[in-house]
Amino acid sequence: MNKRDRLDIIYEDKEIIVVNKPSKLLTIATDNEKEKTLFHKVISYEKKKNKNNKVFIVHRLDKDTSGIVLFAKSEELKRRLQDEWDNLVKLREYVAIVEGKPPKDKGTIRSWLKETKTLLVYSSGRMGDGKEAITHYRKVMGNNRFTMLDITIDTGRKNQIRVHMSDIGCPIVGDKKYNSKTNPIRRMGLHANKLVLTHPITKKDMTFECDIPNCFIKIVE
Predict the structure, then answer these.
(1) What is the residue range of 127's domain?
(2) 45, 66, 89, 144: which has the fewest C-beta neighbours closer than 10 Å?
(3) What percent of the chain clears pLDDT 70, i.e. is strictly above it?
(4) 33 contacts 44 by C-beta, under 8 angstroms
(5) Residue (of 42, 48, 45) closest to 60 by Cα position
(6) CA torsion angle for 142, 171, 10, 24 (degrees, to 10)?
(7) Which residues are identified as catalytic?
């Protein structure tokens, strides 16, 4: 079985299911693709246990980004998680492989994101001109060509990390849309590796993690 065909479950209980999405797989269906999606894999898994089971997507990742995605098992819980997202989510952490070296070993990028008619997201430096986006980064390791960054976000805007890395002259590898010139790992170098969440039912803080892809480590060793 192809690795992308397997469902990598990080955690599951009666209310939620947390999975590790592979790169190059849509989170949800589009007009052009209905079945090759993470949602389809999760609902198929649940239906095998009980044909009446349901799942609802709480948030999503870009097709080429891998990592943690959260699903709710009821529509009511999905709405609650989305409505209270900023309060329930304590940390969203990513690992990125970028071209070159950032200007500093750690820093914060803040801008206001807008989108063109061709769906390209870009930064405005003018306060209030778009949706505010805040990204924090820290260098983990690197070489002369590529750098591994630990990234956390205060806001979850569309393409936020990808735009902000390009803004500082260090586009994510494999991200041609946002000015990457290289693709050494044959995928985009962005992975959501950690989510800290207050469970809306039990009220307990829970930490979900998944491994950094091996290709990320090899390219910066």
Answers:
(1) 3-220
(2) 144
(3) 95
(4) no
(5) 42
(6) -120
(7) 62
